C-alpha cells in the first residue's frame, strides 16, 4: 500500500475521493475526471477534528483499511468486525439505540499532522469511516456521529474504487 504524500495530492491519474460537507456529497475522481457522485450524511455536530466531538474531520486522509469485501449487503459491524447479523427491520426494532455500521467500512487515516493526525485530532484513532447505513436514515443532511454514511449501492461502488492507500479530501 502506497501512503500518499501531501505534495502528491490530488493524484493526476489515480482514483481519489472528495467529500464536500457543505453539499453533503461524495465525488469519486480518477485524476481530473469525475467518475461518480453520491449523497452522504456526515457528522450532525458539523466539521471538526477533536476526539469525542461527534464532528467529521477535515483535510487530506487516505483509506487505511477496506473491511468487509465479499460479505453480504446489510452485514452488521461492531468494532470493525462482522457480528454475524444482517440488518433488517426486525433487528432494527430490537436494537433502536444502535448506530448501525453496515455492509462495508473504509477506515480513514489523516495525513495532516496537528489537523487530522496525532494527539486528540487523530482521525484513525477516532475510528472515522465511510460506511453503510440503514435505508431509513437521511442522506444529503448531517446526521451521523462523525463518520460518513452512504447508501449500500453508493458504498459498494466507492469500495470497489477506493482501495487502501486511496486519498480522501474532506472539506466544507
Automatic annotation (TrEMBL):
> Can you tell me which residues form the catalytic site?
131 (proton donor/acceptor), 147 (nucleophile)
Kindly tell me the pathway this chain contributes to: Cell wall biogenesis; peptidoglycan biosynthesis
- What are the UniProt keywords, alphabetically? Cell shape, Cell wall biogenesis/degradation, Glycosyltransferase, Hydrolase, Peptidoglycan synthesis, Transferase
- Matches recorded under InterPro entries: LD-transpeptidase, LD_TPept_cat_dom, Transpep_catalytic_dom
Output the superkingdom of the source species. Bacteria
Question: Domain named L,D-TPase catalytic: which ranges?
Answer: 15-171
Q: Does the keyword Transferase apply?
A: yes
PANTHER family of this UniProt entry?
L,D-TRANSPEPTIDASE (PTHR30582), L,D-TRANSPEPTIDASE ERFK_SRFK-RELATED (PTHR30582:SF24)
- What is the name listed in the Swiss-Prot or TrEMBL entry for this protein? L,D-transpeptidase family protein
Amino acid at each position: 500500500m502506497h501512503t500518499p504524500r501531501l505534495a502528491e495530492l490530488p493524484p493526476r491519474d489515480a482514483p481519489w475521493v472528495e467529500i464536500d460537507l457543505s453539499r453533503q456529497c461524495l465525488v469519486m475522481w480518477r485524476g481530473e475526471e469525475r467518475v461518480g457522485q453520491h449523497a452522504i450524511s456526515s457528522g450532525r455536530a458539523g466539521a471538526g477534528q477533536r476526539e469525542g466531538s461527534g464532528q467529521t474531520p477535515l483535510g487530506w486522509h487516505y483509506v487505511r483499511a477496506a473491511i468487509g469485501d465479499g460479505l453480504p449487503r446489510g452485514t452488521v459491524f461492531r468494532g470493525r468486525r462482522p457480528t454475524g447479523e444482517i440488518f433488517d427491520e426486525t433487528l432494527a426494532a430490537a436494537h433502536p439505540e444502535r448506530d448501525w455500521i453496515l455492509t462495508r467500512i473504509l477506515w480513514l487515516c489523516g495525513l495532516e499532522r496537528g489537523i487530522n493526525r496525532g494527539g486528540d485530532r487523530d482521525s484513525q484513532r477516532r475510528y472515522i469511516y465511510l460506511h453503510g447505513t440503514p435505508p431509513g436514515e437521511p442522506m444529503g443532511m448531517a446526521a451521523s456521529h462523525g463518520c460518513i454514511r452512504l447508501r449500500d449501492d453508493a458504498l459498494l461502488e466507492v469500495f470497489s474504487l477506493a482501495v487502501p492507500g486511496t486519498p480522501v479530501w474532506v472539506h466544507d
